[in-house]
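Database export, one record per block. Field names are fixed; values are copied verbatim from the stored entry.
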Amino acid sequence: MPNRRPVLIVEDDEALREILRNHLEGEFAVSAACSLEEADKALASEEAHFDAVILDIGLPDGDGRDYCARLRRRGHNMPIIMLTGSDGESDVVRGLQSGASDYIAKPFRSGELLARVRSQLRAFDRSEEAVLTVGPYTFRPAKKLLQDPARNTRIRLTGKETAVLKFLYRSNSPVEREMLMHEVWGYNAAVKTHTLETHIYRLRQKIEVSPANPSILVTERGGYRLNL
């Protein structure tokens, strides 16, 4: 099953919120909020994380641009795409100055929205800003680094270990061994299952409290899954 990356829509217009959900949910795991208060609760939840936020400007409890600036100050670095009914230059400039990654004026075309979300995610994944959470660790793929703030420890990863963790992170379901090998090593007949299992073994030695009984990088249904 293709990866479905989590996206949060913050929009108070119920009809538009459902249109956005319908446009995105075939490719992304979509959650929605109708106010800044609800958005705060969603972003603060320990059970959820979001790779992108689609944020309306005019919300019942505040201005989306001010909220975007607050999210940036709090350390949220994921792409934030602003939605507005105005495409005037001053509005666009203010939105981008607040920390928005992109800006889409209503009405918009579904294809354009999807293209912009994909583009922002690709750019973010390549950036030094990408910071993900894996179990107790802060994962910085660009730096090939895991950090455990509670224990003040740093774990260095190899390129392939980083790629394995990153691909598993993006999946909402177990990833079969063959798919993981293809995504990380590409089409290479020389790569055997043993190669993948060796990398999984080494990763577990680095990140698990009990590598023999893993709780973060688990085996499931003929493949592997991350407990985030």
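Remark 1: The two ends are 19 Å apart (CA to CA).
Remark 2: The chain has a mean pLDDT of 88.
End of record.
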